[in-house]
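Hello forum,

I keep getting stuck at the same step: I have a sequence, I want structure tokens, and every attempt I make locally crashes halfway through. Rather than fight my setup again tonight, could one of you with a working pipeline run this one for me? It's a single chain of 264 residues.
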Amino acid sequence: MPTNDAGKRTIGSVNRALDVLEALRRLNGATLAELAEEVDLSKGALHTHLATLCDHGFVEHRGDGYALGQRFITFGEYVRNSSPLYHAAKGEVDDLAAETGECVHLITEDAGLENILYESFGDRAVGQEFFVKNREKMGRHLHYSAAGKAILAEFDDDELDAHLDRHGLPRRTEHTITDREAFEDELERIRERGYSTNDEEDLLGVRAVGTSILGPDGDVLGALSVSAPASRLDGERFDDEFPRKVTETVNIVEVNLQTMNGDA
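Reply #2:
Ran it on my machine without issues. Output:
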């Protein structure tokens, strides 16, 4: 029986089915021949996997090929709607986007990578297509986004070492911090001032400010950030106004979480 990187036993057929789904997502749909080049399966075995996935609604025929099925919409909505963080933060994210006019992101960490749980666009928000495409991607790193850095700043030394050993600090733009010692210094500054920044480290011309969100038990649940053009998010707005607004919003979210759990 196969094992994963942690040495745990896994089911080979499930692994292969997931490989097929991931290839369809990555290729934005594909023919049988195209999929056969991406996954380690014969065309016959691949066809059997696809037929099974089609029967369950996870894959659908599209033209002369295959694409992810709409069953994933139901699963995705269920997962998000089951999240206490989503319910505690959604209204506050919308309010902050309306107040600032910019883009507000609510993210969580999943296996050391970024997951966008929710986002809201104000009337002056830029880069909406970029952010929407990011939402569809899997495997976005934490170290070049404000929200991601806020989450990493909550890691203890052992957790951070394990994360950096596994994921590294790949360059996203010329401003991305890729030196480990410099990044650890950046996290220390985040802990001292209580908020994080992204200074064109993810997308040139865009800055962001973020803060981690803690649950009633003190565990980090995610983070919230506001992104805006560097020409608008500068000076006092970058150093004081937006950090204050983000921190105030996160405080409300954390109170909402306590109230939902009956701890208030």
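Residues 173 and 204 are 7 Å apart (CA to CA). If your local run keeps crashing, start a new thread with the error log.
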